[in-house]
């Protein structure tokens, strides 16, 4: 969902930078790049390492969550270019659509409803359902438990290496949507069931 369906990953990182700066920690966005596509628990550990445990990470996260909610409510976190058209096309043609995300159910529902696309998705699988986060295949294996999907006909859209690894490990072909396609594609260039596109629409 994040970075694939909606433009959110860069905003999440920037909001972390703002919260950390407020508490006296000067951190560059690039230093947080490893957080993309990861679950909150893992990212909390990364933040703790960066600030050397000099502040309560959970309190910092609570502040950032408030800013994220504001970003969603004000439309700052919006659908990626071309996504509305793609969703409409797929639904019109009778495809079953689902979201498998390492975000919480509350966050996912908030984003989907705020962008007016919640009704497009028959299934919503979130971080609460998994024991092992991406790159483990848990999130996709849980999605495949739905009678609407199976690995023979499913297709995943991803924007990170972690997500691609998770989908492929679950036996699901994956398309990587990324502006950094050349760099990320090198990781998967010898694997079947993998394709890359820049973004969904040129203009």
TrEMBL record:
Coiled coil start-end: none
Protein name per Swiss-Prot or TrEMBL: Uncharacterized protein
Short name of one Pfam family: HAD_2
SUPFAM superfamilies to which the protein is assigned, alphabetical: HAD-like
